[in-house]
Design goal:
By secondary structure, the chain is an alpha+beta fold. It is built from eight helices and five strands; from the N terminus they run H-H-H-H-E-E-E-H-H-E-E-H-H.
């Protein structure tokens, strides 16, 4: 068989081979139904469906990282309802009224059992602590430092200058106070931390004590100088005011 007879058969084989390759390439280049659906899903969002394939360009890697950061941020700031404490039943008006009456009773009867410590100091401040009965301390405002009017209402009565500076959490019925060292010697007891009606009595008591001290000084001078013909007679010292036990003012308190 000559070469001319064999040539058409070779051409037919090459043609069929080329057509097979073309069909495979067309199949590879033609999107499948799943790919078409994914493209339609992300149409207009500029997102790509990678199908777990590794990105091939830097831009694709940047895009994936940016999308990941957005997802993390969204997940991080999602507001979800937190499981709270079970709702406590609201107290009735009668229960609130009874509670208020009990509070008034405790604040009236228990201050006489308050215990005051002695002073202790460092280079800058002097300190003291005041121990309240626990049944009285339960009415204290929770989680806040007290102002003078507040601790006065609870029956804590003391001299001028004290400041409630710390909440002692293990035992909140113990109130911790401080003030400048030697405060009374420097400034005097000019504003006692007592109820207003008792402060007036304390001021009068202070004035009487001062007058008594002046008379004693004058009497001592007259004793040292016998010539007292022209000096006026001395008056007896005034009697101290009678205050309830837990209202008696101690000038070193």
């Amino acid at each position: 068989m000559n070469n001319d007879e064999n040539r058409p058969q070779c051409d037919d084989k090459n043609t069929s081979k080329n057509s097979t390759i073309a069909v495979k390439e067309a199949a590879c280049n033609t999107p499948t139904a799943a790919a078409a659906a994914a493209a339609a899903k992300h149409e207009g969002t500029n997102l790509k469906e990678y199908n777990n394939l590794m990105p091939k360009t830097i831009d694709e890697i940047k895009e994936i990282q940016a999308r990941g950061r957005k997802l993390l941020i969204r997940k991080k700031y999602i507001k979800r309802p937190r499981p709270g404490l079970p709702n406590q039943p609201q107290k009735s008006e009668e229960e609130l009224k009874l509670e208020e009456l009990q509070k008034e009773k405790d604040m009236k009867e228990l201050p006489q059992h308050i215990v005051y410590s002695k002073y202790y100091s460092d280079d800058e401040f002097e300190y003291r602590h005041v121990v309240l009965p626990k049944n009285l301390a339960r009415w204290l405002p929770q989680g806040q430092l007290l102002q003078p009017k507040q601790w006065i209402d609870f029956g804590v009565h003391q001299s001028t200058g004290w400041e409630h500076y710390m909440i002692y959490k293990p035992e909140p019925h113990i109130l911790l106070f401080k003030r400048e060292k030697d405060y009374l010697n420097k400034y005097g007891d000019h504003n006692p931390q007592y109820p207003p009606e008792i402060v007036k009595q304390i001021k009068l008591e202070q004035a009487q004590q001062k007058e008594q001290e002046q008379q004693q000084q004058q009497q001592q001078k007259n004793t040292e100088n016998p010539d007292t013909k022209n000096s006026p007679p001395l008056l007896p010292a005034p009697a101290p005011l009678s205050l309830p036990p837990h209202h008696q003012h101690n000038f070193n308190k």
